[in-house]
Every structure is written in C-alpha cells, then in structure tokens.
Write a structure and sequence with these properties.
- The structure is a single chain.
- The radius of gyration is 29 Å and the shape is elongated.
- The strands form two sheets. Strands 1, 2, 5, 6, 7, 8 and 9 form a seven-stranded mixed beta sheet that branches. Strands 3-4 form a two-stranded antiparallel ribbon.
- Helix content is 30%, strand content 27%.
- It has 209 residues and is an alpha+beta fold.
- The chain has four helices and nine strands.
- It has two domains: 66 residues, wza like domain (wza like fold, 2-Layer Sandwich); 82 residues, Outer membrane lipoprotein wza domain like (Outer membrane lipoprotein wza fold like, Roll).
C-alpha cells in the first residue's frame, strides 16, 4: 500500500470514530436539557391564601430573622393576641397579616440589627375553623391548615358516609354579610381536577346530603 493511500485510510477511520463518539454523546446531553426544563413545566403550586390571612389567638407562626437564629423560631399567638420575642418583648400579632407583622418586627429590630430581614410564615390556623355537616365520618368543626382544600377537609373529617350523595355536596360561605351556596363537583375533584378542589375560607360549612 502506498503512503498516500495509507494516510487517506487512517484519516477516514479517525473521522468515523469521531462521528460515532459525537453520536454516543448527544443522547446523554438530551436528558439534561429535559431535566432543566422540567421545573418550568411542574412549577404549579397550590395557592396558600395566607397573605391576607389575619392572625388571631391560638394561631402558630414561624418568625425567621436572617442570620439571627436566636431571634427565630415558632411562636404561639397567646389568648391576649401577643407574641414574645427576645430583645423586643411582647408584640401584638392578632389583627395583623403575617406580612404586616414581619414589617413591624423588622422595624423594631432596627434598633439592634442593621437592615434586619424578617419573614413570618403561618404554620397553623388554630383560630380559624371550617364546619362539616351531614353524611360524613365526623361532623362539626375542623381546624384549618394554610390553604386547606375541600378534599383535605372531608378527609380530615373521616371521608363521606356510606349514604352520602356526592353529587349534591355544597359549601355555605358568608361573603360581605351575604350567604353563598357553592355547588361542589366532588367526584371530578377526587379524580384530580385541581380547579374543582376548592380552597376553603374560614367559617365555611360543607354540607354533605
């Protein structure tokens, strides 16, 4: 074999090897791109509806002061509507939203900390309840959790009774002094239609015929 032919053959083999390597590498990169896009497709979250929630006695909150662990932690709103914090003493929490309370704590901490970063998160809505009546496992009041839905409340109360009419469940809600009757599509919500798994309001009454 001539030298020129040998060089052409070696070049062709090298090109083929590089092409195979590129083809083998491409599928490995593809899942990474898919994984990077996945959070965008799955970034739906249930509305918690706690931004406008007004705190009251027995609610549980978590106060976090950035880089100040001694000032952070879970707190119970006392019967007098107050919470107690190191450095600040008693602060009225009842009648305020978590955001309003965070702003007040931040303002008070400026005497002791430069540019305090404070967040208040609602943990338990112990001062707010929903009520269940009719053919259900356990009737009566149920303590709300942040963002509690229709299905969560029914599950907390033990589920529907054996004679429940799931097609005629409804919610009674007081809005602006007027009572609303909100029909519920329970079975569709149970099958995964999140738009029908209604977010409850404090004081709602779920009626299960």
């Amino acid at each position: 074999m001539k030298t020129g032919s040998l060089l052409i053959t070696i070049t062709a083999i090298s090109a083929a090897a590089l092409l195979c390597h590129a083809q083998d590498k491409e599928p490995a990169d593809q899942p990474a791109a898919q994984n990077a896009a996945a959070p965008t497709a799955q970034s739906t979250s249930r509305p918690a509806m706690t931004d406008s929630y007004v705190l009251d006695a027995s609610d549980v909150i978590t106060v976090t002061v950035f880089k100040e662990p001694t000032l952070s932690g879970g707190l119970l709103v006392r019967p007098d509507g107050m919470i107690s914090m190191p450095l600040l003493g008693d602060i009225r929490a009842s009648g305020k939203t978590p955001l309003q309370l965070a702003d007040e704590i931040s303002s008070k901490l400026k005497k002791y900390i430069q540019d305090p970063n404070v967040t208040v998160v609602l943990g338990q809505m112990n001062s707010k309840k929903v009520y269940l009546m009719g053919e259900i496992g356990r009737t009566g009041p149920v303590d709300m959790t942040p963002g509690m839905t229709l299905l969560e409340a029914i599950s907390t109360a033990g589920g529907l009774g054996p004679y429940a009419n799931a097609k005629k469940i409804y919610i009674l809600r007081n809005e602006g002094g007027k009572q609303q009757k909100i029909p519920v599509q329970y079975k569709k919500a149970l099958r995964g239609d999140s738009s029908l798994n209604l977010i409850l309001h404090p004081g709602d009454t779920i009626i299960v015929p």
